[in-house]
Amino acid sequence: GEVCNMIYKKYSEFLPSMQSTEELVAQVDELSGNIDVLRADIENKVQQDLNVAVAEFTELKQQLEQDTLVLSVLKKLQEFDRAIKEHKTALREKKYIAAAQQLEKARSILRNLESHKGFELKILKALGRELMVQTQNMLFHLGEEWQKLVVWQLPPSKGESGLEAVVHSELHLHTVASKEEEEVAGPPLVSVLQALAVLGDLHTRLKAFGQFLLKYILKPLISYPSLQPLTEEWPDVFILRFKSEEPTLDQSSPMEVFDKIKLIFEVLHKYLLNVPLELPGEDRKEGRVTLVELLGELIWEELSNCLIQNCLVNSIPTNSSKLEQYTEVIKSTEEFEKVLKNIQFLKGDTTDLLKYARNVNSHFASKKCQDVIAAARNLMTSEIHNTVKITPDSCVALPQLPDPGSGDHLKMQKPSNLLHSGTGNLENKSKLSQYTFSLPACRISSSVEQLMELVNQTLLEAATSTDQCCVQLFYSVRRIFQLFYEVVPTYHKESLQKFPQLAAIHHNNCMYLAHHLLTLGHKYRYCTTNILSKEAASFVDLVPAFRRLGMECFKAQMRVQKGEILERLSSVRNFSNMDDEENFRAANKAIRQVLHQLKRLGQVWQDVLPVNVYCKALGTLLNTALAEIVTRIVALEDISAEDAERLYSLCKIMVEEGPKVFTPLPEEDENKKYQEEVPVYVEKWMAFKELMIILQANLQEIVDQWADGNGPLAAEFSAAEVKSLIRALFQNTERRAAALAKIK
Q1: 284-312, pLDDT tens digit by residue?
Q2: Which of 224, 275, 557, 677 has a CB 3.0–4.6 Å from the CB of 503, allowing a cystine?
Q3: Distances in Å between the alpha carbon of 41 and those of 37, 49, 194, 609?
Q4: Distance separating alpha carbons of residues 325 and 433, to the nearest angstrom
Q5: Name one GO biological process term (predicted).
Q6: What distances in angstroms separate CA 350 from CA 334, 347, 353, one per listed residue?
Q7: What angle do helix axes 611-634 and 685-696 make, rounded to 10 degrees?
């Protein structure tokens, strides 16, 4: 019963609390429903309001940005206007640097305005025009100021020229500022130049000044030795002008030229060029630079080239002995550059000018080579017919060669040591004739003799020069010979074809040169330690070409002469019908003409060709005539007694007069020997004499001359030719038949 009471008590306590809890749940559910309804209402309404607010905010933001931009543009336009106004004020007060800076400020404002994309204002074009007008106006003012500071007084362009014009040219520098001007805006020169630099127009002005300086002052001083610069210093102006003195030499020495130009730059530096400037946008240290540096960059290259071409080139010595004195020129070039570096006109080391001066050996060689080639070319194009006599004893004038063993620096073997094997012992055993390597007596052009003297002098110069110079000179000498080979036959072509004497002289010239080419390399072998002795400095390879050149020219002339001989003889109709008076006269005339032609050649070649060549040449031509006559007479089918008589008389003229054309020497009595030796030089001489015997002989005598093929007649003619002659000369009889039978 106690348990039941306890349960009841607990239950009665639990029930009300459960009822109150249920009521509470019901209330919560109701409240939750209300909240959901409220939330849905709020979300709809707030979202709407929020969207409206964001849109309004974006619009306000854009409005603000636009207003800010308009404000900044208006500010910039105000600044532009202020800059232009301040520029005008400064320009009126001649404060050029400030005026230029205000213009540049306005320019940068305008650039800034133009950079806004999608913001094109018509006013910007107007501002650009205004800025351009103001800039041009200021440049005009500065130009006028510059022309007042730097005044060129030049002669009128027409009329005077050259030296006269230069003498009347003056440069006036009004760059010495008065005290009042300096107080206003600093020295006018500095403010004008700095303003030009700010506006970017300094380069143009300075370039024009540099060109005037070169044309009217610097280049004339280099070109005219008589010009002397004069300077006058006054309180308000500095004047630079010239006076002209009689020059002692055609060309100034580099030292004199350098001194004059140093003076010009020193005074220009003092009165004009020593101006420090601030250059906008330059990669220089702190952007500072002096006017002289800028001028140096603009004109140094042209000035340097002019100094090289018109001064140093002319000072290069033409003789190796003067090369040592050239150190003075190199030293003065170094000093000249040092002065220009001190005033900052020049920057960097070793310019082209100094390199050129220091490279004197190479220039000396080039100049020497040019002079040598030019002299050689002159000799080659001079007349061939002025000749000199060469005898076996005569030798080209050689300068005194140094002794191979002399001089401390020449550590050389004597030639005798070099030749100890083989040829060194020649003298002991058998001695060569003194004439073994000598030319036969003949005449050569005096120009060719001078050419060989030039060659020898050049090679001697080469032998005592530096290696580089030596090689250049050696190849110049080779070039001389190659030039001769190319120039002479072409330049004198017509004369060599037309005149037999010139062809003979040219032949001798070529043989003379070939003769010297054989030994030329050896001659200078032992004079020196330089490259000529170490290398195979030889000319032997040119020898065959020169011999061929001489031979071909002379052979061509021989062909012309042969042609003339054959043409003259062809006018005679085969020497037939000599009993016809007209035919005989024609034959007689032709033979006389041939002899006359040979006699004329004998005279023009006399004392010109070497005797052996002379005799061979004339012998060949006389042989051509005799061979032609023999061939024509042997070919005759019928020779009457009268024909034979007349043919004999014609042949007799040839035999008597022919040898007389051989007059190789001017002394008459000395020619006898050569006239007697005619059979040696004329191959057909004996045949011709045998033909004459036949023309006068009877049948028996002809048979005797034949002597069964062993007689003199058989030595010159074939059996067929002799039979043909017998048939032509004698009528057909038994005696003739018997004689013919013996010729076999």
Answers
A1: 445 688 888 888 888 888 888 888 888 88
A2: 557
A3: 6, 13, 77, 142
A4: 47
A5: cell division
A6: 9, 10, 8
A7: 30
